[in-house]
Amino acid sequence: MENKRTAYIALACVCFFWGTTYFFIREGVKHIPPFLFAGIRHFMAGVLFTFYFIVLKKEKLPNRAILLRLFFIGLLLLFFANSFVTWAEVYIPSGLTSLLCCFMPFYMLVFNLLSKKSEAIHKTSLLGLSLGLVGSVLIFSDNIVLLAQPAYTLGIILTIVANIAWALGTIYTKRNPFSIAPLFSAGLQMLMVGGLVLVFSFIFEDYSSLQFTTNGILSIVYLVVFGSAVGFGCYFYAVSRLPITLVSINSYANVVVAMALAALFQSEVFGIKTIISLFITLVGIYLVNVGVMKSKK
């Protein structure tokens, strides 16, 4: 029971901190190339995690087979998902990015149903997922017209690929649990794939306009600590102990947090439509949780 309570707390942290990452990523990529930005973020967080477990806790590195599996999951979650979202925010606003990412639970739901070992999904959870999607779309309905603009095409494609990769990586993680601690697992993935992303950046990105501004550096520090170290650590912990459908609701909660940041720092006003949208989204999250409990019974 204690582990379950801790898992719910971890999921709440994911919902909040990852909702803030869209804002900070957008600030960072204004002056720092996206893959360099993402690589620094994950590699530094990976160093912190692995230092803690190997040096302070005296943990041993897992065998080669486990490291290869961790690297594969890291490719999906960190390279094709997170780094692609970072790249996408060079072209599209953070609000639109979070809107597109709220479709991720449906990719996860479809892939989960296609799996032979899929979890039972209660109709109440399906209703909750649907309401969450409706609420999220309504929140950013004023930005939906941007989807038709050619200038946004690459950013939209990158975000869709990122959603698919994230759904596949999460399901694979759930289906193939590791014997090592979830936080150690997250650290090793960030260390290996973060290094790969940096190499990719050094080879393919142009640094001629690179500027480590104050906002850029603060964004990296925030994302290292709260986006990567806290966020990914809590995510892997939640995935290892909670049903996939329940964990996927973080995408909806992220939209709520992203909207709150837009109101606080971008002078966006909460109208009646926004309040109704937020309410619908929160009801959807609640119904997903109720459906998970019914499925267990």
How many domains, in number, for the residues? 1
Q: How would a crystallographer describe the biggest sheet? A: none
Number of strand segments: 0
> Helix and strand succession?
HHHHHHHHHHHH
Radius of gyration: 18 Å
End-to-end Cα distance: 16 Å
Helix content: over 70%
In terms of DSSP E residues, the strand content is under 5%
Q: Any low-confidence stretches, pLDDT <50, length ≥5?
A: none
**How large is the count of helical segments?**
12
Structural class: mainly alpha
Shape: globular
How would you state the average pLDDT, rounded? 84
Please characterize this protein's 3D structure:
It is a single chain. The chain is mainly alpha-helical and 297 residues long. The chain has one domain (2-296). The protein contains 12 helices and no strands. It has helices spanning 2-28, 34-56, 64-88, 94-101, 104-114, 123-139, 153-175, 182-204, 214-241, 244-247, 250-265, 272-296. Helix 1 (2-28) runs antiparallel to helix 9 and helix 1 packs across helix 11 (250-265). The protein is globular and about 50 Å long.
In short:
The protein has 297 residues and is mainly alpha-helical. It is 77% helix and 0% strand. It has one domain.
Would you spell out the secondary-structure blueprint of this structure?
Layout: H1 2-28, H2 34-56, H3 64-88, H4 94-101, H5 104-114, H6 123-139, H7 153-175, H8 182-204, H9 214-241, H10 244-247, H11 250-265, H12 272-296
Helix pairs in contact: 1-4, 1-9, 1-11, 2-3, 2-8, 2-9, 3-7, 3-8, 4-11, 5-7, 6-11, 6-12, 8-9
